[in-house]
Amino acid sequence: MTGAERVRAAIEARNREGRAALIPYFCAWDPDLETTRALLWAAAEAGASVVELGFPFSDPLADGPTIQAATQRALRHRPTLEDFLEFVFRLYAEGYPLPVVVMGYYNPFFRFGIKRFAREARKAGLCGAIIPDLPLEEARPWLTEARKQGLAGILLAAPTTPEARLKRIAEASTGFLYYVSVTGITGARDRLPEDLVLRLDLCREVSPVPVAVGFGISTPEQVRLLAPHAEALVVGSALVRIVESEGKRAPERVKRVLSELVSAAERK
Amino acid sequence: MLPNRHGKFGPFGGRFVPETLMPALYELEEAYRRLRKDPDFRRELAWYLREYAGRPTPLYPARRLSEALGGHLKIYLKREDLLHTGAHKINNTLGQVLLARRMGKRRIIAETGAGQHGVATATAAALLGLECVVYMGAKDTVRQAMNVFRMELLGARVVPVTSGTQTLKDAINEAIRDWVTNVETTFYVIGSVVGPHPYPMMVRDFQSVIGRETRRQILRLEGRLPDMVIACVGGGSNAMGIFYPFVRDQEVKLVGVEAAGVGLDSVRHSATLTVGEPGVLHGMMTYLLQDRVGQIKGAHSIAPGLDYPGVGPEHAFLKECGRAEYVAVDDEEALSAFRLLSETEGIIPALESAHAVAYLARIADRLPKGAIVVVNLSGRGDKDVAAVKEYLSGREKR
């Protein structure tokens, strides 16, 4: 199975149980790589389906304060993409069960070389990438390389995306389509847009791949509300906040919180 | 015609932004392409530039400066320093804020480094009665406290940005975050020929009034085009503005002067085109100051307006195709030029513009007799006198 197929299969397997898949986000190296490793294992034990692992960038312009702060903590370790892929490789050598995709801004990948990155990523077992500052118009070269290596080239759609464009984005996206729930940056929110459910239904109507919704999702209530309308739910800042407050001791509480969200994700 | 329809200047430029902003960029491009041909909009902008900002600016023959540099050159200064708010920035902010009003956007946001673009945006917003929020690195709000106060006097709200390096690049990040959140109601006035398409094209067009006037003026004064045009480059808007109308005139040498800060071999400079490498930041593919991994480095210059780790994509293109040459001048050379122009012409230049004067001083001996050189004097130096005084007294102590 290719990386893209693994991602999709993991989501669909969970859907067959009548549940939406949970996709937690962690920022690699926050606060250190050993904790990141423990968080990933905690996520697997909690019943997550796919993991989104952030590669920190100096200028995270789509992120709110929580993930910005995580990025700052992570950057102190002076991470490289070589180290990132090495980490993923070791994780799979230890038998890690979930597909991992990287979430990162474009410049480090561009600098590494996208052809080389796609090749090395496949060798390490990484399953795909989400690049928030690479919209459809700029994504072609990367999507071509990703396809050659069987990686998921996951594109984002937003509340401002018109319907015809949404369809084009969904058709170009592999693994899943990432629908950004709010007009804004990442971060937990009390309220989600009123038409979100309608927008998600539209996404699922036009998308040949599973639809994941993210940005602002943090509570079991939100998960219960959205699970019937999306194949997968991304939870980021709510978990990163736990890492922020508990540091190395975060994995245990992350596991508990994530388990609750997993059990709230019933689709019926 | 550049850029192409994807906003590319060769491999540079483009629109590397979150999807949320893409429809807004299309909306902006469409509105801009329509309005720039609209006679009514053009008349309105021309009226404000003339009656409010003080255009056209003189092309002034700097005889005493010419003498001081050997007496063999004809040096002209394009006096953008005489514009309202003291620099070329107002050319662009009037254009963009008028555009915003036509698009029905009631809220203006901007980033600023030293505060010049923030002041020019706040000015245009006050003039046209729109709400204005300016993002400024927290460190810059301390260094440039006077400009913070000026913006507040003009009715703008200044938001200090505490993330990252707390300087211009982080102010841009924060402005983009605001725009992503409030995109339906808000117009983002970018201050230089940077950012995602259509900004580099639009800001260049608004600033091209500098080059169009210069061309007309030099032909009237000298009966021919200049041999060389020199301008400082941070993001590159004053340089793009004066270069653009000369780009097809191969006989006119175009020189962009970057800030070498305390030296190109140090980590404290802003010479993006001179020693940077291609990458993606703030929505564009361009030259950047970055490390091996692709993390963006901080920039430094004694001139706060040059202090940016990126540069306009059209400059990256002009460098790659060899049409313009980019060089770097350090803090000390810029300071000498700052004094030279003050003493010989009675014009205290902005430290940014002093970089352009400094490069001319460096190469004057090598230029042939009778050569015509135009220096874009993009801003006046009142804003810098306190910083220069402090720098010089600090140097005496060392």
TrEMBL record, chain A:
Q: What class of enzyme is it?
A: lyase
The reply to whether Transport figures as a keyword in the UniProt entry is no
State which pathway it belongs to.
Amino-acid biosynthesis; L-tryptophan biosynthesis; L-tryptophan from chorismate: step 5/5
Its Enzyme Commission number(s) read 4.2.1.20
The cellular component terms of Gene Ontology attached to this UniProt record, alphabetical and capped at eight, are: cytosol
Q: What does this protein do?
A: The alpha subunit is responsible for the aldol cleavage of indoleglycerol phosphate to indole and glyceraldehyde 3-phosphate.
Subunit field text? Tetramer of two alpha and two beta chains.
Tell me what this protein is called: Tryptophan synthase alpha chain
What organism does this protein naturally occur in? Thermosulfurimonas dismutans
Automatic annotation (TrEMBL), chain B:
Q: N6-(pyridoxal phosphate)lysine (modified residue): where?
A: 89
Q: How does it assemble?
A: Tetramer of two alpha and two beta chains.
List the cofactors: pyridoxal 5'-phosphate
What protein name applies here?
A: Tryptophan synthase beta chain
UniProt keywords (A-Z) are: Amino-acid biosynthesis, Aromatic amino acid biosynthesis, Lyase, Pyridoxal phosphate, Tryptophan biosynthesis
The UniProt entry, under SUPFAM superfamilies, shows: Tryptophan synthase beta subunit-like PLP-dependent enzymes
Single GO MF descriptor: tryptophan synthase activity
Tell me the ranges covered by the Tryptophan synthase beta chain-like PALP domain, including all copies: 53-379
A GO cellular component term found in this entry reads:
cytoplasm
According to the UniProt entry, what is the EC number of this protein? Answer: 4.2.1.20
Q: Which domain of life is it from?
A: Bacteria
The record's catalysed reaction(s) read: (1S,2R)-1-C-(indol-3-yl)glycerol 3-phosphate + L-serine = D-glyceraldehyde 3-phosphate + L-tryptophan + H2O
Family named by the database record: Belongs to the TrpB family.
Q: Which organism is it from?
A: Thermosulfurimonas dismutans
CDD domains (UniProt xref): Trp-synth_B
